[in-house]
């Protein structure tokens, strides 16, 4: 670790906000902090790319898992890709030393920085042909998609319903579910979102802006025997799903894009029709899997990073440009990922020097060894 500097830049959240499209000046600050030292079983990763996810927006708004909400100012970022440049020793570090990896934060968000220390078992070596950009979203979205299909198969439902279906996660779900022979009823809000899903091969798409969409959902759910739904919106959408699905169905709420509590759930649906509403949290789901089940999930993701789990990036920002990055992401969350690339210069500097080439953060540097399964996600 002799070539690693003593300090690094890290992005901090100074105050919570729910307005991601407004002026975010003053909400974020980049600070110089000491680079942490890895302990036994941990590694130091130099970050190359870290995405913005809906869970990050919830953290910034102060609504994500309030029981474990960090005090302000707090670090941010749940997953990233980079290169292992240091180790605290231990057998678990051997497979990832000096390798290009994807990694996930445990237990607190810390990825929007130049360096992070993480358990070696929470690192996934990237295949040689996978870039840092393609590998930076290995965990949150792909593992959620794999979990959704596992849940569907566990109750033998041939079809599922998914809201906010034009999101990056939703597009992955359409492609992966097709491979797994599970039909997806996609619920979107705009026709252009429906067109984007049709281009991916989605067969069943409902536009919630149309007046008769609830009746169509009820008919289609019955026709396809869709007994499981995954809801990223909450609010009145949860009640609409419960009402439309067949008896004995389960709605899994995994997001709150409406910023409203679940509403419109009829008592009779729960009692007499035996419908259920439950929460889905990837961290909890993964913690309940044994090591072989976790490895199986991660292996499926790793095998499809160039396919159905490929990440499309629409914007790249430095840590100093956090306000602009959040504005960009919130403007259209289904139009590709917005990522932080710590090696990048501040946007204003890059615009003033258009002839300067950006750092080659996406180019693979070394071949990866056999895939190691993270202990948790």
Describe the structure.
The chain has helices at 54-61, 132-135, 140-154, 168-179, 191-199, 213-224, 236-244, 267-271, 282-287, 291-303, 322-331, 347-352, and strands at residues 7-13, 28-34, 42-51, 74-75, 79-87, 100-104, 115-119, 123-125, 159-163, 183-188, 204-207, 226-231, 250-253, 276-279, 313-317, 337-340. With 377 residues, it is an alpha/beta fold. The strands form 3 sheets. Strands 3, 5, 6, 7, 8, 15 and 16 form a 7-stranded mixed β-sheet that branches. A 6-stranded parallel β-sheet has the order 11-10-9-12-13-14, with helices on both faces. α3 packs across α4 (168-179), α3 crosses α10 and α6 (213-224) packs across α7. The longest helix is centred in the middle third of the chain and has 15 residues, at 140-154. The protein is globular and about 65 Å long. The protein starts with 6 loop residues before the first strand and ends in a 25-residue tail after the last helix. Residues 355-377 have low confidence and may be disordered.
């Amino acid at each position: 670790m002799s070539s690693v500097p003593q300090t690094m830049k890290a992005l901090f959240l100074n105050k919570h906000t729910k307005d991601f499209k407004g002026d975010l000046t003053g909400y974020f600050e980049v600070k110089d902090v000491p680079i942490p030292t890895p302990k036994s079983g941990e590694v130091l990763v130099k970050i190359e790319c870290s995405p913005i996810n809906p869970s990050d927006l919830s953290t910034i708004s102060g609504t994500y898992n309030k029981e474990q909400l960090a005090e302000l100012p707090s670090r941010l970022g749940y997953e990233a890709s980079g290169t292992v440049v240091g180790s605290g020793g231990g057998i678990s570090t051997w497979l990832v030393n000096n390798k290009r990896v994807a990694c996930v934060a445990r237990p607190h968000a810390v990825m929007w920085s130049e360096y992070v220390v993480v358990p070696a078992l929470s690192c996934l070596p990237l295949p040689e042909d996978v870039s840092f950009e393609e590998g930076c979203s290995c965990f949150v979205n792909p593992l959620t998609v794999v979990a959704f299909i596992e849940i569907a198969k566990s109750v033998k439902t041939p079809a599922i319903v998914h809201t906010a279906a034009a999101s990056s996660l939703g597009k992955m779900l359409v492609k992966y579910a097709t491979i797994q022979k599970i039909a997806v009823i996609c619920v979107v809000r705009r026709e252009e979102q429906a067109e984007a899903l049709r281009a991916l091969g989605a067969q069943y798409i409902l536009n919630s802006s149309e007046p008769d969409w609830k009746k169509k959902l009820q008919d289609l759910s019955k026709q396809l025997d869709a007994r499981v739904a995954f809801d990223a919106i909450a609010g009145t959408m949860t009640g609409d799903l419960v009402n439309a699905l067949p008896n004995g169905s389960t709605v899994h709420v995994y997001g709150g894009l409406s910023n409203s509590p679940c509403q419109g759930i009829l008592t009779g649906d729960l009692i007499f029709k035996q419908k259920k509403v439950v929460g889905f949290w990837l961290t909890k789901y993964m913690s309940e899997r044994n090591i072989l089940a976790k490895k199986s999930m991660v292996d499926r993701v790793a095998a499809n990073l160039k396919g159905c789990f490929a990440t499309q990036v629409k914007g790249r920002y430095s840590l100093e440009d956090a306000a602009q990055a959040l504005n960009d992401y919130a403007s259209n969350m289904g139009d590709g990922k917005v990522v932080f690339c710590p090696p990048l210069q501040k946007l204003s500097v890059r615009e003033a020097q258009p002839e300067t080439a950006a750092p080659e953060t996406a180019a693979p540097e070394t071949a990866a060894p056999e895939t190691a399964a993270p202990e948790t996600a």
